[in-house]
Write a sequence for this structure.
């Protein structure tokens, strides 16, 4: 018989078969009843005194009691009940109700929550309130619903565990998820390894540079962070490595500015101290040089290197000597002479170009060199032999003479070019790569047999393409000092006789990013001072199109794109008409 009863009339039954976990997740059930109503009658035994023992539905009764205490269930609201007849056994009924059902698979829950978002526009906050879950739990379910369909199918078959799904869900990239799981040996599919594989290439939040800057400062600057919804609060990843390194450099430069005011001969910033070659900078000492590193005299000859320690703390190394200064000081002390103080290098004159524009221009220059080098397999071979010989026969500190980044390390420089689709260098490089991609076997297993079957001339052409991809001449905006690879890139440009006028012109996009004074300086140098003076009126917006037309007829280039003049000791590689290479040093 079905009827209704008040909450005050319902009691717990001693014959309820469920003894364990009877009151688990009652707040969740209360939230469901509040939002959806009571979807199922309580099964009761009539005690004959206007009271009823709840044989099946004790958890629902407990949830309603919780709603009553919070003021969400009126005292006079009737509850639908089904009264058992005398022929029913209470324990048997309770047992049947609890053993004949199967809980939903977690995958069904994840996808059902996602459907609420997609179909109803429900927010995690609204879903959490309706179903009694914390908002963070709902967000986690929605994140899991975004795991690839292939992995979700495997999860339903118990071929993937929930812990593994949570590790893979840190990214929404289905290809990354599947590659990480299916390419890894089974014994390597623990959550920690899977998380590391899907986030490969990102910077962890506990990286030394992230700790040095601080996540709050990074986010305040507009940086994005991917957080693991299923890990601890420290498991997060930096998405914008460029911004992070800018902030690192800016923080170090602020400290460096104060040190320069102390009068040191030089102050250098090396975010990664490994690039500073500290071993090559002896520290001033009384015994070796005649004065202490903290003395005023030390400031005349020594300098400071700043960087970031492994633990993310600031490292300041004072009283360091350049190799040439260390030798001069030792020589002067041995001869009883007063050492000479070298005059500081003068700053280059002329209009300054923003660091971001230098970054873009040098990216274009890098691609131009790659295109030119791809035509010179003889030179590519010389480069490879040169760089490999450095590693095999010379000291570790000679590695800064390398011409390439061969490790290999294929750096994407196209991303630094604002309008890559209009760049001759980008188009030429893409055409070259696409052409070779069509010639190579589609299956990687077939690559080696293909290679050994080719003529040397074909392999040299392919080598040139690959070596060219390892050239990196970009001057990144966060680099305040010129790295050794920039000097090496100039040597390579000289050898290639690089003419950037074939690859770049000062268009409106470039001119609009430099000052009016810089535009006039370019006109004076590239066209004539008279033309520059005649256009020195009106606004910069008026000047840009006129300057673009004038400079289009010239061969003017900004300094960062110019190839230095050939020095007496600069090696060249000549090429015969037959294409055979002959290495020769210009005498």
């Amino acid at each position: 018989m079905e009827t209704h009863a008040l909450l005050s009339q319902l009691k717990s039954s001693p014959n309820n078969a469920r003894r364990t976990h009877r009151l688990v997740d009652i707040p969740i059930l209360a939230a469901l009843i509040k939002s959806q109503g009571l979807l199922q009658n309580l099964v009761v035994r009539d005690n004959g005194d206007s009271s009823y023992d709840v044989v099946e539905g004790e958890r629902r009764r407990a949830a309603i009691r919780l709603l009553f205490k919070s003021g969400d269930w009126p005292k006079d609201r009737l509850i639908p009940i089904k009264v058992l007849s005398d022929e029913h056994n209470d324990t048997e009924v309770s047992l049947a109700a609890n053993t004949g059902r199967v809980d939903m698979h977690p995958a069904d829950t994840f996808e059902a929550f996602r459907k609420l978002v997609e179909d109803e526009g429900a927010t995690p906050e609204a879903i959490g309130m309706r179903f009694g879950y914390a908002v963070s739990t709902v967000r986690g379910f929605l994140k899991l619903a975004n795991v690839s369909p292939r992995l979700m199918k495997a999860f339903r078959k118990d071929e993937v565990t929930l812990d593994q799904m949570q590790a893979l869900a840190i990214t929404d990239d289905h290809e990354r998820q599947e590659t990480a799981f299916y390419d890894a040996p089974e014994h390597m599919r623990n959550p920690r390894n899977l998380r590391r594989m899907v986030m490969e290439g990102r910077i962890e939040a506990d990286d030394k540079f992230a700790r040095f800057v601080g996540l709050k400062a990074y986010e305040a600057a507009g940086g994005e962070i991917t957080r693991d919804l299923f890990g601890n609060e420290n498991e997060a990843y930096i998405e914008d490595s460029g911004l992070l390194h800018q902030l690192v450099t800016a923080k170090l430069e602020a400290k460096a500015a104060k040190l320069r005011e102390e009068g040191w001969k030089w102050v250098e910033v090396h975010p990664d101290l490994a690039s500073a070659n500290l071993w090559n900078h002896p520290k001033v000492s009384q015994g070796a040089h005649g004065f202490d590193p903290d003395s005023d005299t030390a400031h005349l000859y020594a300098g400071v290197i700043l960087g970031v320690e492994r633990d993310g703390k600031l490292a300041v190394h004072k009283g360091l000597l350049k190799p040439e200064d260390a030798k001069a000081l030792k020589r002067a002390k041995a001869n009883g002479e007063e050492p000479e103080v070298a005059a500081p290098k003068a700053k280059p004159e002329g209009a300054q170009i923003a660091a971001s524009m230098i970054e873009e221009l040098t990216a274009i220059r890098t691609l131009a060199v790659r295109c030119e080098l791809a035509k010179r397999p003889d030179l590519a071979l010389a480069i490879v032999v040169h760089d490999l010989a450095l590693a095999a026969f010379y000291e570790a500190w000679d590695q800064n003479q390398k011409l390439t980044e061969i490790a290999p390390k294929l750096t994407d420089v196209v991303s630094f070019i604002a309008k890559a689709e209009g760049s001759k260098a980008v188009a030429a490089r893409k055409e070259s790569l696409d052409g070779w991609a069509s010639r190579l076997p589609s299956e990687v297993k077939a690559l080696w047999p293909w290679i050994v079957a080719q003529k040397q001339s074909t392999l040299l052409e392919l080598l040139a393409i690959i070596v060219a991809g390892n050239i990196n001449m970009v001057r990144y905006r966060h680099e305040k000092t010129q790295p050794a690879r920039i000097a090496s890139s100039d040597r390579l440009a000289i050898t290639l006789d690089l003419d950037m006028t074939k690859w770049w012109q000062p268009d409106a996009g470039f001119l609009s990013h430099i000052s009016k004074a810089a535009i006039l300086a370019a006109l004076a140098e590239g066209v004539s001072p008279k033309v520059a003076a005649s256009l020195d009126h009106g606004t910069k917006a008026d000047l840009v199109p006129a300057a673009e037309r004038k400079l289009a007829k010239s061969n003017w280039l900004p300094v960062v794109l110019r190839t230095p003049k050939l020095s007496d000791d600069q090696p060249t590689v000549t090429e015969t008409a037959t294409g055979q290479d002959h290495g020769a040093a210009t005498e």
Observations:
- Residues 241-261 form the longest helix (21 residues).
- Confidence is low (pLDDT under 50) at residues 342-351, 572-587.
- The chain is about 45% helix and 10% strand.
